[in-house]
């Protein structure tokens, strides 16, 4: 029963992990950039939702849409100004540009909002559904549902719309895409904006059961990378599966190991996955 | 790369540059004599030297072989913890602890080489990042040995070289300078040795290097072992200097892993002088920002260093040394110079 409970919790939390990791996969798939700053956009989304709750009285589940829009716009600008110039640069420049961006965003937030932990109050915060002996926490369930909806929306956008098709074409072969009349720069901008916007959305929907502070992203960095590497970097559906796997590993390992070592298990899984199937991961390109 | 012309260039340049570096080191050694031995500036310059040395150690794998490690904090922290734990529990001299720390860091590097050396670029960076974080988690949770999140204090002792313990920062300045000179010599020696050419081959094209018979795994392994040992040794000097540390201070991503890579990148990745230039710019600037605002605006100094990193990468990804070279050529004076020779 305890195991079943852990599986349910892991699934619900992991679904959100998966959705916040989609952007990382999407950006890699489309521009071949690993965005080390990705988790900072999650933090931004959480802050937007917190302010929307504090000043507009908006539930974070609705504030999430505002988070998406604002962070999407910001992401497009970041892509245009910072990321575009280094797309053809050596990998070391790409890595450290996004690492620099992470440091800048985290500390800008620290300067603007202070180091306090902020939380929201919602009517469903501490309530849960009971199914037999299993407790399904309402905030977990709602966050999971919202995350999966947004993930499905992005999937539909990529698979079913002309712009989405153009974006996938850009991922597969930028040269051919350009020849077909696709504005690949616009696709890059959109992909980056959608990627970080989706993460912001995910950050907003988990706010009812978490607190936000400028460094909240650091808890998610390795977690997101584990999710996308497990699922295959560049694959959108893979990121969701990987995220759920990460959530389940986390909550099941908490049954066996003390809570502090929870993340250690994750790091080990991450390094092993990278080590054991680097080729398989590298070869899977394209969103 | 014109591999054939390189040896000639190096030998022709080695002598005057060796003299130049020796003169620089000698000049650096007398600087603190003119400064207040207890003072702020000796402290800042000591930190600068420590980070220059760390950047140089990172440069051995990051610069020569282009293996972008984001987990050097692992070695730094292992050195720091090993020597301090031995000092606290057995009264062992940090000089001996330093060798124990180096040996442990070599073991860590050996273990990590197995899963990480097949990885390239982003993947290598990700795996090393996770490795450093894993050690931070261990240091935080293994409370019986490491003191956990509370951290460790280096026991207070009277001034003594043998115990690497001084009340004033000045002696640490010289120890850090010695460390920088040593690591720089090692870097230089590796760079101009056969190993250096193998590493450069790895950097240019790993598969091609394999094809012409370079054992790339072994070359990378040697470089990373040397780099790990040097990083651990400097970690010992660092904590003796700062007296106190916790897991985040020595295993942190932003506090250590990124900062020492940053120093090398801002200065000029893969160049001998790059980490020194980088540390001279980054560390005092960060301290000045902190001092100017007396730490009132939390996050500003880190914000500044992140911004410098972004600016350098956008303007000249090869670092300030290359930028100076470019500017000088732009001004039409002596074409090519130390700035270019580092490439």
Q: Any chance you could write out the topology, listing elements then pairs?
A:
The complex is a heterodimer of chains A (287) and B (343).
Chain A lengths: L1 H30 L6 H19 L3 H24 L7 H23 L14 E4 L2 E4 H23 L1 H11 L1 H6 L4 H22 L12 H14 L4 H21 L5 H15 L1 H6 L4
Antiparallel strand pairs in A: 1-2
Chain B lengths: L5 H25 L9 H23 L10 H18 L3 H23 L4 H21 L1 H4 L5 E2 L16 H23 L1 H11 L1 H6 L4 H27 L1 E2 L1 H5 L1 H15 L6 H20 L6 H16 L4 H11 L7 H4 L2
Antiparallel strand pairs in B: 1-2
Helix pairs in contact in B: 1-7, 2-7, 2-10, 2-12, 2-13, 3-4, 3-5, 3-10, 4-10, 7-8, 7-10, 8-10, 12-13, 13-14
Short structural description:
The complex is a heterodimer of chains A (287) and B (343). Chain A is mainly alpha-helical and 287 residues long. Chain A is built from twelve helices and two strands.
Salient structural properties:
heterodimer, A: 287 residues, two-stranded antiparallel ribbon, 12 helices, 75% helix, globular, B: 343 residues, mainly alpha, 73% helix, disordered N terminus
